[in-house]
Design brief:
Chain lengths: 107, 146
């Protein structure tokens, strides 16, 4: 198992954060207010989720007037894709080891 | 060997092996044998038994996988949950007698978060999320994006 981006996994382990990230990724730049209206949780909670997404570099913020606008940075997802394709390598390797063991058991 | 990745992002590996199902079953279900090809473990072939698979820790991963036996059908079907880094998935083995041996099928599926069950409708489960990931990442390479 290779090293994975800890912040990325922490950010995406929460389903509300995944939902928030997907809204931004799909619908484009959004404010905390518009996200709060959709999320069904308090604005401080949404802000906290956005802060964690920002640490994981999944979103970028931009201030305009009194509002902060958040946009998605999907490139930050690349380590996750790598991690999942890693399971393909992992299981292929284990299948080989299983067969080596089975051949030894015959003796 | 056949490896495929359906849209749900489950991973399937199928391979015919020149060994009888009974022998492969032993390799899949006896702890010392599992330790020789998968990871060190405290597996027991009992439905509901909780066990851990342990490998060498690396940065950002403690090397521990928490599992629970879900299905035991001797010489035929075995499955266990597979939880690590807050993501739950399931590993299911199916052994089918084939000409000269056994068809071994392993499906590792349902990558999702442990918290999903508590989220209304689980509409943003890992499977759905991951299903959209490749499209999102593929779009990165298109001109005019990012």
């Amino acid at each position: 198992m290779q090293a994975v981006a800890d912040d990325l996994f922490k950010a995406l382990a929460d389903p509300t954060r995944r939902a928030i990230f997907q809204w931004i990724a799909r619908d484009g730049e959004q404010t905390v207010h518009s996200l709060t209206a959709r999320a069904g949780v308090s604005q401080p909670a949404v802000s906290k989720h956005l802060a964690i997404l920002k640490i994981a570099r999944l979103v970028r913020d931009r201030r305009e007037g009194r509002e902060t606008h958040y946009s998605a940075q999907p490139r930050a997802l690349v380590p996750l894709i790598d991690w999942m394709s890693h399971y393909g390598v992992f299981w292929r390797d284990r299948f080989e080891r299983l067969e080596i063991l089975l051949n030894k058991m015959e003796k | 060997m056949n490896i495929s990745n359906p849209p749900t992002r489950s991973l399937i590996i199928e391979k015919d092996m020149p060994h009888p199902p009974e022998k492969i079953w032993l390799a899949l279900t006896q702890a010392p044998l599992i330790g020789q090809w998968l990871m060190s473990n405290d597996f027991q072939p009992v439905v509901g038994h909780k066990f851990t698979l342990r490998s060498t820790p690396v940065p950002n991963w403690n090397g521990i996988i928490d599992c629970e036996v879900q299905v035991i059908e001797p010489n035929s079907r075995l499955s266990y949950s597979w939880g690590t880094m807050g993501m739950m998935s399931v590993v299911a083995w199916t052994l089918t007698p084939a000409k000269g041996g056994t068809r071994v099928r392993m499906e590792h599926s349902g990558f999702r978060s442990e918290e999903d069950a508590n989220y209304k409708g689980a509409s943003y489960g890992w499977q759905k999320f991951i299903g959209g990931l490749e499209r999102v990442v593929a779009a990165l390479d298109s001109p005019g994006k990012e």
